[in-house]
Amino acid sequence: MALYSAAAAVLEGLERGEGGLKSLVYNSGFPHVRQLYALVSETLRYTSVLEKLLDGAALLQAEKKLAPQLAKVLVYDLLFGKGLKCGGRWKALARRHRSRLEAELARMKVRHKVSRNEDLLAPEKTVSAAASQVPRYIRVNTLKTCVDDVIDFFKRQGYAYLGKAATVEELKALSGKKFLLDLHLPELLVFPAQTDLHDNLLYTSGHIILQDKASCLPAFLLGPVVGSHVIDACAAPGNKTSHLAAILKNKGQIFAFDVDPKRVATMNTLLTRAGVTGCQLAQQDFLTVDPRDPKYSRVTHILLDPSCSGSGMVTRGPGEEVAPSAERLQALAGFQRRVLNHALSFPALQRLVYSTCSLHQEENEDVVQAVLQEWGSAFRLVTAFPSWPCRGLAVFSGAESCLRASPAETLTQGFFMAVLERCREGAATLSSLPATAKENPQPGEGTEPGAAPKKRKKKKQQVK
């Protein structure tokens, strides 16, 4: 059962944009990483087939407590893999539905006029060519070190530092043992796509975080001032949480929530390795958190990255872009509206970042528009990071204030971000400023293209 639970957790992490396949597998805590990697990779490869099987056999409707990610893993191993060698009660559940699943699989083969399971797989999608160019991004963990020291460390390991990138094309051209400072984010280094740093001392000691550039944007855009009280509503496995802690310099308070106990345990391990303090972890559904609890009376910033279709995520291993059904999208959007409404109800809230790793308008612009309409003039969209090249779809007035990211245009995973701010009488407009420019200049200064990040006066502990 541990294998299937771990695989389902990795799939959920991919859907939520918390990292690439390899990073999530290595951070899972599962002892047999090769076995886990193989199972998740193959499940991803069969994703479109598995979703059609689950819909056709109505498995999720029949088993309300079975999570979609776990269902995919179980059905993959039952029909295409090793035949469920373990699994406990979930194994028994899957076998109860085996006849229906096999019948649906047979019908699929007849409809597609194929005889082999492999023939059901769709050819590689055009997004794969762009995805193969997505570089390896590493975020320097400023709780333990600084950019200059990390650059020096890699230079001593034989890497050639090429300075700060001026264009996305420079990132695309990286090869061999060369690396750059990102053109947008001041603490992000960029390496060629196939660079593997999982065994590097800086990674294992928590001095660097392997995190896609798009996944770094939500905390950067939120930009809480040092000393703020912040909520990370759907936090596991914790990369964004550790980024918030770095922006806060471990001063203030972070409340991080996730409903899954194993994901909370993984997050605790990651945050400890990263040197994060002042963070309260809670195994709790964020929707059950009481905004009127005095504990949260000083919460001014919320990062909300709820469960989504994961359609923007492109793994570095085998796999396909997720193609959810219309019913699945509708259900996700309904949940996302509820959780965004809930987040906006915290009385001291001043700024919120809503993000997904989805490409679908239903989960992105449509959710933001619906919730803003419900709140009237209480909140507004902020035009964060004006120089960012990809904006929200112009489906309502102001939607261009939102940000999008994609492998083809920004050399990142696919993401969507919206910055919401409480309206205040006489408040100065932020619409012409990059994110964090007014609230917290420390992480945001010098981050517009062409501006050099400021030198730190005092270095943190040096890695030798």
UniProtKB/TrEMBL annotation:
| GO BP, one annotated term | rRNA base methylation
This protein's GO cellular component annotations are: nucleolus
Q: Which residues make up the binding site for S-adenosyl-L-methionine?
A: 234-240, 258, 285, 305
Spans of biased composition, class Basic residues? Answer: 453-464
Q: Which UniProt keywords apply?
A: Acetylation, Coiled coil, Methyltransferase, Nucleus, Phosphoprotein, RNA-binding, rRNA processing, S-adenosyl-L-methionine, Transferase
Q: Which SUPFAM superfamilies match?
A: S-adenosyl-L-methionine-dependent methyltransferases
Recorded hits in InterPro entries, A to Z, give: MeTrfase_RsmB-F_NOP2_cat (IPR049560), MeTrfase_RsmB-F_NOP2_dom (IPR001678), NSUN5_7_fdxn-like (IPR049561), NSUN5_RCM1_N (IPR048889), RCMT (IPR023267), SAM-dependent_MTases_sf (IPR029063)
The UniProt record lists the SAM-dependent MTase RsmB/NOP-type domain at 126-423
Could you tell me which Gene3D superfamilies the record lists for this protein? Answer: Sun protein, domain 3, Vaccinia Virus protein VP39
Indicate where this protein is primarily found.
nucleus
The catalytic residues are 357 (nucleophile)
Q: Where in the cell is it found?
A: Nucleus, Nucleolus
| Key word rRNA processing present | yes
GO MF terms here are: RNA binding; rRNA (cytosine-C5-)-methyltransferase activity
Where do the coiled-coil regions begin and end? Answer: 91-118
Q: Region Disordered: start and end of each range?
A: 431-464
Q: Which superkingdom is the protein from?
A: Eukaryota
Similarity annotation: Belongs to the class I-like SAM-binding methyltransferase superfamily. RsmB/NOP family.
Q: What is this protein called?
A: 28S rRNA (cytosine-C(5))-methyltransferase
Q: Which organism is it from?
A: Anthoscopus minutus (Southern penduline-tit)
